[in-house]
Design brief:
heterodimer; A: 355 residues; Rossmann fold; 6-stranded parallel beta sheet; two-stranded antiparallel sheet; globular; B: Rossmann fold
Chain lengths: 355, 324
């Protein structure tokens, strides 16, 4: 799957033979989740551009396979922590798409009641421990959950998603170190999408692969094709099994790419100072798109045909349209709610802005 | 009931909370060998799984405490130095104190951060002598500074039972003090100030290590003026009612704090009095705080910066004979 010099691939390659190792229902579901993620992001961008919702969009288009492949490898009780770019992660964990859209809209019916918005998501019922807008901040929280698992001797594994940018944060290094000395049941899942806003990982990271850093913590690490959902699923399954089996923390780097800017206002800020070429973006879109790759492989293997994919596409479109309507029809909270649910105890009365 | 040292009260609270609840765990540097003497014997009694030495990685182990707390543990995270909150501000403020709100109540963070080397122990210089509580209460994080052995145990046990993140400071200069401390478990609620000495002429609002200083000043003025000493105990939750009630009675108030003057705890107390009790006042509100200057290693300079009995005494004198 070579695609020229720009996206020369270094990691573990996709295995052309493994389509048949998966149930067709799982394959359909993997595709549905990737497609859903893609369309939810596009709907979000439309809403942002139309000024219909309060915030911005941190879109994960291009990174669908690492989200879906990873979350598919988890058991019901397992947890994830995520980042500012986690819509794909939470959808793959099972967060309700209506509640996610309503959260984007800042509505009462949102998964966090409209308080967190698109990049502070919490959904304990679906194993979404947290997604955090502060780069790297949620990684120690994932390790805290893993510490709790270790003390309770339960069977749970936590996956901490983070990016190439967060891989340079001190708190991430500190957490990897403690996870290693304590043998915590955690998988560090680094989605290397090549850029921390405008700063390329080639520039900011001296090693060939980010996973090379795992070696420093005596932790198994590997770099894989993050665009191939089946490779992600297979490799992460192995890492999760090892973590569950008491073999300590594991590190998986998914090589991936984001099609859009760091966030929806990026272009306005950058103006005519681009940090990557249109050719590069097109090359990834055309040659390493997770949905295209999956479709090609599954149809080539004769497991699904075009009409089956089209049926899923239509169903996803409907789901997303309904979710947008659900968001639009939902109420905003009253402003007075701002002073509620700040503390778990009632021994502090938060002050209003005037008295 | 027996006479115990402040530090003994802290040790008892750690031990009794761990004995009562398997979810209480202790994370920190050198806690197994109990460098700060707060965790003596705990690793032997409760095991190294629950009493865990951390590497020197404070933002990391604070964040691990946050995650464990979100998952149902009740971690005690011990900081060796009073300036560690500067290093961990991101995990304390942007995470521990925000997650209950951001998650719309779906998660709580019942984590207690303890700072046994709180205050200015003398001779440790500019980087180990801070009183960071005002900075944290500014962002809504509960702050507790027990001034007596009884409170050290009761407030710490309350903090550990509290479902929100709480920082508890044990001022170094108080750790040798002794007082009555019940052997059994008890709590002192957060948010209730204590009248340490009753009076109706002047109110001195104090906290932590300034409470004994304020009490000594009240004794100095015996026969001349009746000085009431109000111990805030917990800068947040702030017991506004107790402050305003005392000011209503005395009409003259000195607010004392170990932290800096600018945007400090004393500033908040003074602002509330100005807002709600202006017409009860017979004199301007005076503040005795740390000067807005770093703490030097030099003894005379350190003395110039920190609040002390002589300055509190001067302030009481000034509110008794105000010059507007």
């Amino acid at each position: 799957m070579m695609c020229g010099s720009i996206c020369q691939y270094r990691g573990i390659m996709s295995q052309e033979t493994n389509v048949h190792d998966h149930d067709k229902s799982n394959l359909r579901e993997m595709y549905r989740q990737m497609k859903l993620t893609r369309e939810v992001e596009l709907a979000l961008l439309d809403l942002v551009e139309a000024g219909e919702i309060p915030g911005d969009a941190h879109m994960c288009n291009g990174q669908e396979a690492s989200a879906v492949g990873t979350c598919f490898a988890l058991d019901d009780d397992d947890l994830i922590t995520g980042t500012h770019r986690s819509h794909g992660h939470v959808l793959a964990m099972g967060t309700d798409v209506n509640e996610l859209l309503a959260e984007f809209g800042g509505k009462k019916t949102g998964v966090g009641g409209g308080r967190g918005g698109e990049f502070h998501l919490y959904d304990p019922e679906n194993g979404v421990f947290e997604t955090s807008a502060v780069v790297g901040a949620s990684v120690p929280h994932g390790a805290g959950a893993a510490l709790s698992s270790q003390i309770d001797n339960d069977d749970r594994v936590t996956v901490a998603f983070f990016g190439d940018g967060a891989s340079n944060e001190g708190v991430v290094f500190e957490t990897m170190n403690m996870a290693a000395i304590w043998d915590l049941p955690i998988v560090f899942l680094c989605e290397n999408n090549q850029y921390a806003v405008s700063t390329s990982s080639d520039y900011s990271i001296p090693t060939d692969d980010i996973s090379d850093r795992a070696t420093a913590f005596d932790m198994p690490g590997k770099t894989i094709d993050g665009q191939d959902v089946l490779t992600v699923y297979d490799e992460v399954s192995e890492a999760v099994a090892a973590a569950r089996n008491g073999e300590g923390p594991q590190f998986v780097e998914c090589e991936t790419y984001r099609y859009f800017g760091h966030f929806s206002a990026e272009q306005d800020l950058l103006g005519d100072r681009p940090y990557r070429t249109e050719e590069e973006i097109q090359e990834w879109r055309e040659n390493r798109d997770p949905l295209k790759l999956f479709k090609d492989r599954v149809t080539d293997a004769g497991v699904m045909d075009d009409s089956e994919f089209e049926d899923i596409d239509h169903a996803v479109d409907e789901t997303v349209e309904e979710a947008v309507e659900f968001m639009r029809d939902s109420e905003e909270p009253a402003g007075e709610r701002a002073l509620e649910t700040i503390y778990a105890e009632d021994n502090v009365q938060p002050a209003p802005k005037y008295r | 009931m027996s006479e115990k040292a402040y530090l003994t009260a802290v040790i008892e609270a750690y031990r009794q909370s761990m004995a009562a609840d398997d979810d209480v765990i202790l994370l920190g540097e050198d806690v197994q060998k109990a460098l700060l003497n707060t965790s003596i014997g705990l690793a032997d009694e409760f095991g190294e799984d629950r009493v865990r030495d951390t590497p020197i990685a404070e933002p990391g182990f604070t964040g691990i405490g946050v995650g464990a707390a979100m998952d149902g543990k009740r971690p005690i995270v011990e900081y060796q130095i009073n300036t560690i909150p500067h290093l961990t501000m991101e995990q304390l403020v942007n995470n521990a104190a925000r997650i209950h709100h951001m998650s719309n109540g779906q998660y709580s963070v019942p984590m207690t951060v303890t700072v046994p080397m709180a205050g200015s122990p003398g001779g440790l210089g500019p980087q180990h002598s801070e009183a960071p509580h005002a900075g944290l209460m500014h962002y809504g994080m509960k702050q507790v500074i027990p001034s007596t052995p009884y409170d050290a145990k009761g407030l710490l046990l309350s903090a550990i039972e509290d479902d929100d993140p709480v920082v508890v400071y044990f001022p170094v200069v108080l750790q040798g003090d002794t007082g009555e401390v019940p052997d059994e478990t008890y709590t002192v609620p957060l948010g209730e100030a204590a009248v340490r000495r009753e009076g109706d002429d002047v109110t001195v609002v104090a906290v932590g290590e300034t409470v004994p200083q304020a009490t000594a000043v009240a004794e100095e003025f015996e026969g001349e003026a009746n000085v009431e000493v109000l111990d805030l105990r917990t800068p947040l939750p702030l017991d506004e009612e107790a402050i305003l009630n005392s000011v209503k009675k005395t009409g003259r108030v000195v607010v004392v704090d170990t932290g800096n003057r600018m945007c400090g705890t004393a500033a908040e107390v003074a602002a509330r009095i100005a807002n709600k009790s202006l017409f009860d006042l017979d004199a301007p509100v005076k503040r005795v705080t740390r000067a807005d200057a770093p703490v030097s290693y030099s003894e005379p300079e350190e003395g110039e910066v920190l609040p002390d009995q002589a300055t509190i005494s001067q302030a009481v004198e000034d509110v008794l004979s105000p010059t507007f």
